[in-house]
Write a structure and sequence with these properties.
The protein is mostly helical and about 170 residues long. Helices cover about 80% and strands about 0% of the residues. It contains eleven helices and no strands. Helix 3 packs parallel to helix 8 (about 95-120), helix 3 (about 25-35) packs antiparallel against helix 10 (about 125-150) and helix 8 (about 95-120) crosses helix 11. This is Ycf60.
């Protein structure tokens, strides 16, 4: 009996879809560290605040609280991105595209978080600042959920600008 190779395992449809979801871990963690405390823990309901602080935002923020952990996460993201672009791991085109798209979505999330943190205190704490934070947070989370559903159905998620960047990176070393 012949043992399956790594290529055989990664070409299996179920495995391919699970591997494709790996790239979405980065924007999920980033959005909950950067914008999660402002959006999720800024409600008038004390039970919601406690729930989100103890079960979602708190543990993720604790993971990212150390600068070394943040750098390790960034290095892992760059290695995964490079491995997908250069095709050093025998992943399918579908998996590579979706992982690259997740990494690019993380870059956009980082940009939004840095831009939001550089706003003046007056703008950040105003209704307009809360609107910006909510739109950025729920937009990123919406793109992540949309990508998850499309990947699970075996379709390519189409996110404006991000999908085009992922497509160009996948085609470089095709």
């Amino acid at each position: 009996m012949k043992l399956p190779t790594l290529e055989d395992i990664l070409e299996n449809k179920k495995c391919e879809r699970i591997v494709s979801l790996v790239g979405l871990i980065f924007p999920f963690l980033e959005v909950h560290v950067v914008l999660g405390p402002k959006v999720l823990c800024n409600t008038n309901n004390a039970d919601f605040n406690i729930f989100f602080k103890t079960h979602l935002v708190g543990p993720i923020a604790e993971l990212y609280s150390n600068q070394a952990n943040h750098m390790i996460s960034f290095i892992i993201m760059v290695i995964v991105f490079d491995a997908c672009v250069r095709k050093t791991i025998p992943l399918t085109l579908f998996s590579r595209f979706n992982i690259i798209q997740g990494v690019l979505l993380d870059v956009i999330c980082s940009f939004l978080g840095i831009t939001y943190s550089q706003l003046s205190y007056l703008v950040r704490e105003s209704t307009f600042g809360e609107l910006i934070a909510n739109v950025a947070y729920f937009g990123i989370v919406g793109f992540i959920l949309y990508s998850i559903f499309m990947i699970l159905f075996g379709r390519y998620p189409k996110i404006p600008i991000v999908s085009e960047g992922a497509r160009l990176n996948v085609q470089i070393f095709r």
